[in-house]
Amino acid sequence: MHLLNRADSALMIIDLQEEFYPIARRDVHRATLARVVDNAAWLAGVASALEIPVIVTEEDPAGNGPTERVILDALEPSAQVLPKTSFGVAGEPRILEALRATGKETVVLAGAETDVCVGHSALGLQALGFRVVVVSDATFSPGEAHDHGERRLAARGIELVAAKGVYYDWLPRLEETRAFRQANPALGHPRHFNL
């Protein structure tokens, strides 16, 4: 596969909501989840700065709460936050309409859960003809479910790329990354990446 082209990319952040994993859940590795949320928020900021469309989904926001604040804070006002009741976004006409309205053919997915909502979304969008890329370090499922989800997606031809890889695909030239960092100092150096 070729590199991601920012002119043909949309970012979709799936169900990274404040109450999705209540504190009583003992199977959730909190440090890993926090890093995934940070990576998704960073990508949302990068996408917004590059004028890449961002769509955020929320599963049952009344029960799972709103999207994590750090992600919402990274978004441009034009980003859409849409509810969903289907595990996969291909089963949500309003979300599909918003995605198709971007005119983009590549969908970069982050969010939860790798093996369910992200997985169903990736496979459904692929079946509709989109190029789908799942950000491996910006997706989460508890325990071994993350790895199981990634293996299923890879077996079906879904690309898995780390957040750092997405960044450099969207900014593939040295002068572009330097200009981006200068214009967006908070986004050029995430604390856990060596960019």
* Spatial strand sequence of the major β-sheet: 3-2-1-4-5-6
- Summed over residues and divided by their number, the pLDDT gives a mean of 94
Largest beta sheet, briefly?
6 strands, parallel
What does the radius of gyration come to?
Answer: 15 Å
Q: What is the N-to-C order of secondary-structure elements (H for helix, E for strand)?
A: EHEHHEHEHEHEHH
Instruction: Report the end-to-end length measured between terminal Cα atoms.
Output: 23 Å
Count of extended strands: 6
Number of helices: 8
Question: Which stretches are low in confidence, meaning pLDDT under 50 for 5 or more residues running?
Answer: none
The proportion of strand residues reads 15-25%
InterPro entries: Isochorismatase-like_dom (IPR000868), Isochorismatase-like_sf (IPR036380), Isochorismatase_domain (IPR050993)
Pfam families: Isochorismatase
Protein name: Isochorismatase family protein
Domain Isochorismatase-like: 9-161
